[in-house]
User: Which sequence fits this backbone?
């Protein structure tokens, strides 16, 4: 395996060919396929058509492209289990995007399926894009899978909370659960955090699961600098009250939820089987543990599932082994250290960048986009669906952060 030196360490370069890039309906889709013993899993990231000038037409082209790619692979939109919509201007464009999505899906008879969906204001770094969309889909093999929507009781009176739901997937004797965009009632971030975690727990109970089955969370905060401390305080209380150990992998990042009444939203992924799937907390000699500075998540979680071995890498930035921000004010050095940390987490589980099937990189200053893309290419962090968006990071001195999912064969 080829390696490149970074920050006096060696990062493995992907030994695999680039992931398939598909041009259809004027859009660009990057697709990664994972073949498992029970199902084929697809990870897609779609960027809009060059000629589409507004969010509605971009969304229509994107969903036509996604449906077409899934149908060509033998599936349909009903194969989708998660969907993340990254919007440049959520308030101005959310309804036109939803309307376009509905038109496309209705034309294909896919109106009843409800994947776990997160719609978030995190502007794509491609300045032409009003939105970009990532999806994960599961196409069962010989043994059928069963997808079930689980509706939540409304946490408050807003229209968005009335839409809250989760998706339970039966894959052999294993159950997976996905939910996105969950919000909680409350006057402040502390109360809303407890509310949204409680809502997730309610959905999990309806799915026959407990919060201890959660291996990964995503938390978006409208006001990162104001609310991150309250999030951490409430999350710690919630986990302590339920004896959650180990705590899940997680990303806590800036992003605007759909409803103005809520300042945070939550996504979760849980997995359960007759025999509990083996879990391993992923660690790295280049990073300390986040709990040491009051953030209750692990740096990564390895889960041996029926169809795959999943390596969930939490949101990772330029943090050193003592928990300090490394290379303050130096973007290139921060990007290097971020990738060193991710590589070390993967390497500890016998994986490399070549095993990554999906990633999101968050950039504090969009003006650094060209430097970010160059750094990712130089270090071989490519060859998979990868969303690049602008978002505030959890510390004011951090300039970029990346989360990733890598998959090893069972």
Assistant:
């Amino acid at each position: 395996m080829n390696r490149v030196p970074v920050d006096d360490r060696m990062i493995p370069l992907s030994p695999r060919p680039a992931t398939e890039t598909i041009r259809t309906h004027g859009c660009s889709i990057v697709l990664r396929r994972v073949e498992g013993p029970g199902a084929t899993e697809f990870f897609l990231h779609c960027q809009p058509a060059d000629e589409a000038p507004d969010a509605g037409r971009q969304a229509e082209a994107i969903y036509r492209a996604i449906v077409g790619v899934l149908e060509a692979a033998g599936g349909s939109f009903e194969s989708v289990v998660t969907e993340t919509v990254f919007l440049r201007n959520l308030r101005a464009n959310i309804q036109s995007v939803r309307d376009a999505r509905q038109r496309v899906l209705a034309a294909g008879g896919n109106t009843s399926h409800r994947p776990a969906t997160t719609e978030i204001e995190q502007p794509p770094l491609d300045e032409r894009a009003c939105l970009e969309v990532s999806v994960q889909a599961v196409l069962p093999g010989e043994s059928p899978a069963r997808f079930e929507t689980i509706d939540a009781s409304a946490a408050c009176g807003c229209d968005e909370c009335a839409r809250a739901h989760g998706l339970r997937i039966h894959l052999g004797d294993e159950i997976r659960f996905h939910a996105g965009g969950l919000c909680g009632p409350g006057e402040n971030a502390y109360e809303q955090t407890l509310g949204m975690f409680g809502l997730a727990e309610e959905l999990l109970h309806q799915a026959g699961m407990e919060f201890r089955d959660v291996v990964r969370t995503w938390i978006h905060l409208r006001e990162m600098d104001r609310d991150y401390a309250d999030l951490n305080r409430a999350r710690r209380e919630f986990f302590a009250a339920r004896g959650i150990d180990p705590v899940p992998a997680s990303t806590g990042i800036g992003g605007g939820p759909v409803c103005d009444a809520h300042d945070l939203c939550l996504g979760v992924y849980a997995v359960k089987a007759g025999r509990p799937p083996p879990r391993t907390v992923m660690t790295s000699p280049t990073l300390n543990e986040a709990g040491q500075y009051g953030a209750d998540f692990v740096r990564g979680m390895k889960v041996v599932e029926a169809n795959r071995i999943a390596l969930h890498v939490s949101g990772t930035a330029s943090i050193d082994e003592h928990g300090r921000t490394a290379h303050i004010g130096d973007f290139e050095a921060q990007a290097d250290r971020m990738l060193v940390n991710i590589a070390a987490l993967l390497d500890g589980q016998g994986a490399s960048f070549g095993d990554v099937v999906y990633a999101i990189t968050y950039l504090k200053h969009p003006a650094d986009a060209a430097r970010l893309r160059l750094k990712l290419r130089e270090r071989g962090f490519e060859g998979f669906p990868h969303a690049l968006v602008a978002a505030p990071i959890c510390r004011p001195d951090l300039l970029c952060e990346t989360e990733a999912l890598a998959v090893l064969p069972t």
